[in-house]
Amino acid sequence: MNTPLRVKPTTTKGLWKVIGASSLGTLIEWYDFYIFGSLAVIISTKFFPADNPTAAFLSTLATFAAGFVVRPFGALFFGRLGDMIGRKYTFMVTLLVMGLSTVAIGLIPEYKTIGFFAPVLILLLRLLQGLALGGEYGGAATYVAEHAEPHRRGERTSWIQTTASFGLFISLAVILLTRKCMSNEAFMAWGWRVPFLISILMVIVSYFIRRNMDESPLFKQVKAEGKVSQNPLKESFGHRYNFKFVLLALFGAAMGQGVVFYTGQFYTLSFLQRVCQVDFDQTNYILGIAIFLGTGLFIFFGWLSDKIGRKIVMMVGMLLAVITYRPIFDKLYQLADVTEKKEQVGALKNTIKKESVPDGDFGAEEMLVTTVHRLYEDGTQKDEITRQYLHPKDKHIVHREDIVSIKLARHDMWIAVGLIFLQVLYVTMVYGPIAAFLVEMFPVKIRYTSMSLPYHIGNGVFGGLMPTVATYLVSKAQSANEAAQAAGRAQPFDKPYLEGLWYPIIIIGVSFLIGMVYLSNKRTEQ
After folding, report:
1. Contact 83, 228 (CB under 8 A)
2. Cα-flanking dihedrals φ and ψ of residue 74, to 5°?
3. pLDDT the model gives residue 179
4. From residue 419, how far is each of 148, 282, 475 by CA, in Å?
5. pLDDT below 50 — which residues of the chain?
6. CA nearest neighbour of 260 among 425, 123, 370
7. What is the pLDDT of residue 11?
8. Rounded distance, CA 444 to CA 288, Å?
9. Distance between alpha carbon 526 and the CA centroid of its chain, in Å?
10. 430 φ/ψ angles, rounded to the nearest 5 degrees
11. How far is residue 132's CA from residue 103's CA, in Å, rounded to a whole number?
């Protein structure tokens, strides 16, 4: 739908400099954005009322999702700036907004100190993060694509795509390293803030790198010819012809791609920790290994889309996800289901100890911790932990927490890595070519705005809501089963832990059908 502009090609050295600078900044923004999700279980105890852990966790997920929902507004605001004043300066601003918001989250006092101001401030900062990310991705993808050779655009822009997984991988690595450098009590009290605070160092480095970059050659030519759009929003969405492509990009590609991405790299983590009750550190190791092993596939599928077309690669990824999600998650659940395992005779251990409460939760100064440790014949370990917070004067119990932590046997852990790697494979198939696909759908003068909105609605709204909606569906199914059992009726759900998967299966399935019918399998800009 657009006529390609002829400009002097960027040298190979210059192109790699462009890719490196764009990718580094985008990686840092993804890191900033993901730290919140990676620490959602802990954050739910710090910034929300602790009397209902499930409600607090759902509130945390909702706050996390709010950052995604606002991303389309960031796409409109920063996309408009990017099409009017340039790609480079716009995504320098988004980098600073994201970085400063992340550091501020690490400085907010807890709920017990400032009450409801804590969740309100967290929400406001998540909204700022979402606005910044809404402008960042479109700018970086457009910037790289407009420097790249048309016949290698899928491969070149796929480096931007790796930053989402690397950002999550680095966030997990920083969390694990921080935990290793201090006691669990210290990490729970204040150490969880460290991953947020160190973001400022990465942002400063990336800012100075980006500041020295040149503007996109295609945008400079459009500007030199006086063809810069004066109203990118009107031209993108007010013209029926272009708006049709915006809708096709959203419902035929970005919607399905976003849900595949957040199912494979976020809901999986929540499912293991909350539904399967697998040990916090072990879940991060499992996901981190799977992401590390699969990240190179972004580049492979970006390259492959240059050869056989963007559509076919993305549609195959969506189809595989729809077909295999339920058996994959069912197997993950079975790996941690100790009711099907045989407990080792004579291995039961009970420990009771008193621990201090350094941050004074529930007005207590110490708590009684009872741990029942069970070992199973296949090597699986289960800890049943009860924490009883004691009143400082008469020592009566003011609050009680019951926690279950399951550590998978080594063999089962590697099976879990393989199952999550399959999901990462689907992510790379749909996400690797998406930047080139979107860039090639729209003309240069409104490209930043036009491609950013469908991408961020697909990822921010449909994808970002996935963990919250799925967790709610699982919780609702489990409650329905418990109510039926109490009433002496048959349980309505055979496998309630899989009910959350109906959301991604339906959304991805719809996107697959629309994409197969209406999208073309173009390789490069026509």
Report:
1. yes
2. -65, -35
3. 87
4. 35, 15, 23
5. 1-3, 5, 524-526
6. 425
7. 66
8. 37
9. 33
10. -85, -25
11. 14
- pLDDT at position 525 is 47
On whether the CB atoms of residues 3 and 106 are closer than 8 A, the answer is: no
Coil, strand or helix at 449: helix
- All residues at 6 or more sequence positions from 9 whose CB lies less than 8 Å from its CB, including other chains: 149
The DSSP-derived string for 92-130 is HHHHHHHHHHHHHHTTPPPHHHHTTHHHHHHHHHHHHHH
**What pLDDT is attached to residue 522?**
61
Q: Residue 208 corresponds to which amino acid? A: F
Phi, psi (rounded to 5 degrees) for 216: -55, 135
Q: Residue 1's pLDDT is what?
A: 46
Quick one: pLDDT at residue 526?
41
Say how many C-beta atoms besides its own lie within 10 A of residue 12's C-beta. 9
**Angstrom distance (rounded) from CA 407 to CA 339:** 14
Q: Which of 397, 394, 393, 343 is nearest to 372 (CA)?
A: 343
- Among the listed residues 80, 62, 98, 83, the one whose alpha carbon sits nearest the alpha carbon of residue 196: 98
pTM of the model: 0.82
Q: Tell me how far apart the terminal alpha carbons of the chain are, to the nearest angstrom.
A: 7
Among 174, 161, 208, 146, which residue's Cα sits nearest to residue 34? 174
- Order the strands of the 397-407 sheet from edge to edge: 349-356, 366-375, 381-390, 397-407
CA dihedral 101→103→105→110, nearest 10 degrees, is -150
Contacts of 312 (CB under 8 A, 6+ apart): 521
Confidence at residue 58, expressed as pLDDT on a 0 to 100 scale: 66
Which residue matches tokens 């480096």?
159
Structure-block tokens of residue 365: 């100064």
Place of tokens 């089962």: 412
Region for residue 226 given its phi and psi (left: phi exceeds 0; alpha: psi -120 to 50; beta: otherwise)? left
